[in-house]
Amino acid sequence: MRQLWPAAVFLAVGICAVSQEAKPKVSEDSLTSEQIVIYRAVLTEYLKGSDGTLNLSAVTETLDQSDASCVRRMRSYNLTVADTVIHKLEPSLISGTNIILVDPERQGSAIKVNDPQNLMKQNGRHEPMHLTLKQEATRPAGANILQQQAKFDTFVQEFNVERPHEALHMQYPAQVYTESVRPYRGIPDPHYPFHDKTIVVTNCGRLCLYRKKINLSTSLAGQAVGIKEVDDGIWLVSFMNYDLGYIDLEDKTLQPLANPFGPKV
Length: 265
Known about the structure:
Blueprint: H1 5-11, E1 25-26, H2 33-46, E2 54-57, H3 68-71, H4 79-84, E3 85-86, E4 99-102, H5 104-113, H6 116-124, H7 127-137, H8 145-162, H9 173-176, E5 197-200, E6 206-209, E7 212-215, E8 224-231, E9 234-239, E10 242-248, E11 253-256
Parallel strand pairs: 1-3, 2-4
Antiparallel strand pairs: 5-8, 6-7, 8-9, 9-10, 10-11
Helix pairs in contact: 1-2
């Protein structure tokens, strides 16, 4: 076991500092089976109690001999090799674990790109537009809604037609904007050709049927729903293409159906 300990110290990522004096050489030899066993043991202990995924460098690091605590138990090991040679890790090393081997250089670039400070700088580019909008259209604010809307209209006209933008190579937004080839025509009024009746839901969310009031939903207030009698005194209520539930006209109750937009089990 004493002969295997240097390998564990040498292989464990982050235990010792990296030597920056000379570019290390990638070893042509694969890790020994003993080294792989120790490496997996170290990583398993590191991940104990964690369900996350560990991004692990695909190459080992060199040993910094200036760290006395790191080399005090490696008297018999060839420290010259540990200081100049690194190994590539094979995928078999991490099989069956929640570890991913990554290129350390690419991983460093990804971390830099996703640095919160960089993201904040990018988001900051949107802030000047909001600040300009506030300064030019709300300070002072319009005396009423019509005057305030006129201020917004003036800002939109200047922003889109009269003011060049650096992001657009000093062009106006109106110069590069193109309308969609598919115009928005809105949602058509509900039509229920296969139902017995079409009823408009009251403002308080009720259906009025044969002088009886049944609570449906205030979210459908003012909307047309279709109802169809499926049994004596039992009516199916539908909105557009979705069946909402069954009305018991005698009890004036609604038995809702399963949510069509709910999670599928």
